[in-house]
């Protein structure tokens, strides 16, 4: 009879959760803010959507953005599938959910920092209180990332790796 192997490896689960979080965070942003609410589009600060031609340019770039986040989501699913095939992976909803939150938070924070602040290609909600919306987006991303990190780290104590 074979000895039961300890499931102590968490990195594959964490990596898949982070990548899935990045992808789904981006899809959520694209679907909610770009398409449903139409608060902004990918290039709306540099190519304002005042003409049909400018709207088409923004829609194409929104499509590239959505395609990239969709690819990240597929990659996350692939990594999760691979993690499931490994016998030493410690399966934990807490670790996986923490990694998802970390990924979504990292997406929000870095997308907000790069696109809203550094490049200025669009803002969360242009116009009145634009900076407050942008800063709130950064803060939300940081809170989600920190919450995810705390969940992941709290699980280390449970499995004895902390």
From TrEMBL:
Keywords for this protein: Membrane, Transmembrane, Transmembrane helix
Keyword Manganese carried by entry: no
Transmembrane segments: 12-37, 64-84, 96-119, 131-152
Record-linked Pfam families: DUF2243
Superkingdom assignment: Bacteria
Record protein name field: DUF2243 domain-containing protein
Protein species of origin: Chroococcidiopsis thermalis (strain PCC 7203)
Classification lineage: Bacteria, Bacillati, Cyanobacteriota, Cyanophyceae, Chroococcidiopsidales
């Amino acid at each position: 009879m074979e000895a039961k192997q300890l499931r102590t490896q968490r990195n594959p689960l964490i990596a898949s959760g982070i990548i899935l979080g990045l992808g789904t965070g981006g899809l959520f942003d694209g679907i909610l803010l770009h398409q449903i609410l139409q608060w902004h589009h990918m290039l709306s600060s540099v190519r304002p959507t005042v003409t049909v031609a400018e709207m088409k340019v923004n829609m194409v770039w929104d499509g590239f953005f959505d395609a990239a986040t969709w690819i990240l989501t597929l990659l996350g699913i692939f990594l999760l599938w691979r993690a499931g095939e490994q016998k030493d992976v410690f399966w934990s909803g807490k670790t996986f959910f923490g990694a998802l939150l970390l990924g979504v938070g990292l997406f929000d924070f870095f997308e907000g920092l790069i696109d809203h602040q550094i490049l200025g290609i669009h803002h969360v909600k242009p116009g009145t209180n634009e900076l407050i919306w942008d800063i709130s987006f950064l803060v939300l991303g940081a809170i989600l990332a920190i919450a995810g990190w705390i969940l992941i780290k709290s699980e280390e104590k449970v499995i004895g790796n902390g």
